[in-house]
Design goal:
The complex is a heterodimer of chains A (291) and B (293). Chain A is an all-alpha fold and 291 residues long. Chain A is 81% helix and 0% strand. In chain A, helix 4 packs parallel to helix 9, helix 6 packs across helix 8 and helix 8 runs antiparallel to helix 12. Chain A is globular, with a radius of gyration of 24 Å. Chain B has a single domain, classed as MetI-like (MetI-like fold). In chain B, helix 6 packs across helix 8 and helix 9 packs across helix 10. The radius of gyration of chain B is 23 Å and the shape is globular. Classes of the chains: A mainly alpha (291), B mainly alpha (293). The interface between A and B is large, with 120 and 101 residues.
Chain lengths: 291, 293
Amino acid sequence: MSAAALRLANRESRGVCITLMLLAFAFLAVFLVLPLVAVFAEALRQGWSAYLDALKEPETLSAVWLTLGIAALVLPFNIAFGVAAAWAIAKFDFRGKSLLTTLIDLPFAVSPVVAGLLFILIFGAQGWFGPWLSEHDVRIIFAAPGMAIATLFISVPYVARELIPLMQAQGREEEEAAVSLGASGWQMFRRVTLPNIKWGLLYGVILANARAMGEFGAVSVVSGHIRGETNTLPLHVEILYNEYNAVGAFAAASVLALLAIVTLIAKTIVEWRMRHEQQTLAAALPAEKTA
Amino acid sequence: MSRTQHNVLPGFRLSLGYAVTYLSLLVLIPLGALIAKSMSLTAGEFWQIATGERALAAYRVTFGAALLAAVVNAVFGFIVAWVLVRYPFPGKRFVDALVDLPFALPTAVAGITLATLYAGTGWIGRFLEPLGVKVAFTPLGIVVALIFIGLPFVVRTLQPVIEDFEPEVEEAAATLGASRMQTLVRVLLPQLLPAWLTGFALAFARSVGEYGSVIFIAGNMPMVSEITPLLIVSKLEQYDLPGATVLAVVMLVISFVLLLAINLLQWFAATRHSGRAAVEPAITLPRTAEVAV
């Protein structure tokens, strides 16, 4: 068989090819494109001025601020944990490593509602610390701290999961060279490790941030839904929707949809940068990489 | 590989200590609290709550809808992954990025949007209603929401595997006289199967616990369209903490079993292709990482 004939044999017939593409595009259009368009169409149903008025509602604005505040509080913890866990897991051998990795993945497997319930059992009125907390007049459940803790829980895996395979692939030679040349731990981290992992870290932070800002179930269980006080933007969407305020609900939702679009764009750019860097690295060290 | 005592890198104790403390405080102790709370009930009480009439109906709705959605996603996820890898078309990068939308879009937004689209007056509902198909506020609505949620899992687990197919293998099959269909079923499918099952299991596992996108479109009728996570929430709202705890333990056990199954599948896939994996450079593309449950 000639090369051209082989290539032909390796392809589906034209009809199959077109059918598959039509099926794929129709499926994606109905399940992804249409909902995305509908968010903005519904938000703008009564025109731009109604849309902007809905966004300027004080309760919507306070929901935006609470969402941003919780994300800003949670992300530094996430970064510190992700880097520490990835450093230990990727660069050292120790017993129980796979157990630790499983534990990091666990919040992915737990239903958001169950995640919220966990913290009610600890900090709630009937929980472990409930009596002590109410005695000292500290509110965690049905208040912002509980929402931040629930958000911490559900966003545990993102940064660590990005960094572990990346740091494992990079090996430890570069850091070992830095240390043997006399670099302190901090110098090694800042000059060698951080530049190597910066794109992976950013990627993990983008995903963790999207999840933290958009979380509904876990935060809903611990929030108590106090308007203007313990409402994040996703929770506010629910309240407005249940009050049949469609324009308000979809206006708030459109802010979150914009966040999702920005997330997807940022993610694509970072993915592209990482692939680019890996390719230049692979081109520079062809012998070592295939060994 | 050098052992720990020969490792000159600093920060092992600090990083491991920090990671373990963080996980213990945030994950282990809370899970312990859940187990401890459920232990305060007798086995009989536990069993009675876990197998109550309304709970059983909720499991049926949750698992039935999740299973159906995962099956739909397995079929269409394969088609989407195949088209994205194999066929050239303009705007491919855009479509590829769009597949991750369900990861990025907050579930509450997905929920209200799907409910509006599939309601009788919505863009999709108005065409289905005359056909006698009601989606919004029925169990079918739950399936639709879960298809949206689970879609990226199958696509993102299959994509790298299809990308890794060596054209020589298919060429060899064609040279030896196999039809395209035979090549697909006999040569490609066996290589694809572990990843396919993993993607299916991931989508299923995610769907079982899903709450935000479902509650808006489900109608939430007890015994008919009430999912287990919602039943947990309604028990919480009635201050029935033991009831909520029991259902949470049931869901947790099921998640663990699913997680175990997924890990076994991946282990199976890894050992099957261990000969090839050893030769390949250990560069993992990041896009599949967030896919794991």
